[in-house]
């Protein structure tokens, strides 16, 4: 079997099963495990999948920089942001992650809502300037320009002083086995600290992020209580999380 055909079949197996195991694929295709591992390495370098021990998972497509992601904000992200904003109750302390979906959340917070909003995203904070009753706490640190968020030791130290009601988290991958993942090591550490600082964590995940993975783990699925996704997301994508008793909200 030609390399191109093997890779196409690997992608088909990933789409069908949500993961591939190198040993099983080698047996299926009648080639050595070393050959399949080489294929997986090359495909990972091309951004086609995320390698894990023994095989691979689907790669998250949410890797573009902030400006590009902002320019293609979908109706689904608008709906997710709107649904999440409705969950914020008067008097609560909530944490908003960075990213384009969290920015939509901020834009849909009612102007008369009295609450405290904590964020490490300058772009999210700016959306709340015209909210007179909202207290905004902006976490500082080193600016991670890809996502326009603060990261690093200073950010984590500030986060550790906060006890919030809810953290609305954005990630690039949500997978039944890999958990919640993102593409930068330091950003993952900050998201993890934000999750620890809140009584509950709710994930904002458009459908292309479900059953996908990125290199760095944020938290396991046991660390969250809910996922908000688009109304049109296929049931097959959300079923694994519903089986884990994670509340799925369709926006």
Q: Which secondary structure elements does this structure contain, and how are they paired or packed?
A:
Elements lengths: L2 H15 L2 E2 H8 L3 H13 L3 E4 L2 E4 L7 H6 L3 H12 L6 E4 L3 H8 L7 E5 L2 H5 L7 E5 L3 E3 L4 E3 L1 H7 L4 E7 L2 E3 L3 E4 L2 H12 L1 E7 L11 E4 L6 E4 L5 H8 L4 E4 L1
Parallel strand pairs: 4-5, 4-9, 5-6, 9-12, 12-14, 14-15
Antiparallel strand pairs: 1-3, 2-3, 7-8, 10-11, 11-13
Helix pairs in contact: 2-3, 5-6
Briefly characterize the structure:
By secondary structure, this protein is of the alpha/beta class. It is 37% helix and 25% strand. The chain has two domains: 3-58, Orthogonal Bundle (Arc Repressor Mutant, subunit A); 66-250, Rossmann fold.
Oligomer: single chain
Residue share in helix: 25-40%
Give helix and strand order, one letter per element, not per position. Answer: HEHHEEHHEHEHEEEHEEEHEEEHE
User: What would CATH call the architecture of the largest domain?
Assistant: 3-Layer(aba) Sandwich
Number of strands: 15
Supply Rg: 19 Å
What does the average pLDDT come to? Answer: 90
Widest sheet: strand ordering: 6-5-4-9-12-14-15
Structural class: alpha/beta
The CATH superfamily of the largest domain turns out to be Translation initiation factor eif-2b, domain 2
Given as residue ranges, the uncertain stretches (5+ residues, pLDDT < 50) are: none
CATH class category of the largest domain: Alpha Beta
Question: How much of the polypeptide forms β-strand, as a percent range?
Answer: 25-35%
Label the overall shape. Answer: elongated
Give me the number of helical elements: 10
The biggest sheet, with number of strands, parallel, antiparallel or mixed sense and barrel status, is: 7 strands, parallel
InterPro entries: Carb_Metab_HTH_regulators, DeoR-like_C, DeoR_HTH, NagB/RpiA_transferase-like, Tscrpt_reg_HTH_DeoR_CS, WH-like_DNA-bd_sf, WH_DNA-bd_sf
Pfam family, one: HTH_DeoR
GO molecular function: DNA binding; DNA-binding transcription factor activity
Organism: Acidisarcina polymorpha
């Amino acid at each position: 079997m030609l390399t191109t055909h093997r890779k196409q079949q690997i992608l088909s197996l990933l789409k069908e099963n949500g993961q591939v195991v190198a040993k099983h694929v080698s047996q299926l295709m009648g080639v050595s495990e070393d050959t399949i591992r080489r294929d997986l390495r090359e495909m990972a370098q091309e951004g086609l999948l995320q390698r894990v021990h023994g095989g691979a998972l689907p790669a998250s497509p949410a890797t573009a920089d902030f400006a590009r992601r902002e320019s293609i904000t979908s109706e689904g992200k608008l709906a997710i942001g709107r649904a999440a904003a409705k969950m914020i109750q008067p008097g609560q302390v909530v944490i908003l992650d960075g990213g384009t979906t969290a920015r939509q959340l901020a834009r849909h917070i009612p102007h008369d809502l009295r609450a405290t909003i904590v964020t490490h995203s300058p772009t999210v904070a700016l959306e709340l300037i015209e909210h007179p009753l909202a207290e905004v706490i902006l976490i500082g640190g080193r600016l991670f320009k890809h996502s326009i968020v603060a990261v690093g030791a200073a950010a984590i130290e500030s986060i550790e002083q906060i006890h919030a009601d809810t953290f609305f988290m954005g990630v690039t991958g949500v997978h039944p086995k890999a958990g919640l993942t993102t593409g930068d090591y330091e950003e993952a550490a900050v998201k993890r600290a934000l999750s620890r600082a809140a009584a509950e964590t709710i994930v904002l995940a458009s459908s292309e992020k479900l059953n996908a993975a990125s290199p760095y783990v944020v938290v396991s699925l046991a660390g969250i209580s809910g996922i908000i996704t688009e109304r049109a997301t296929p049931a097959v994508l959300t079923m694994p999380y519903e089986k884990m008793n994670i509340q799925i909200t369709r926006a």
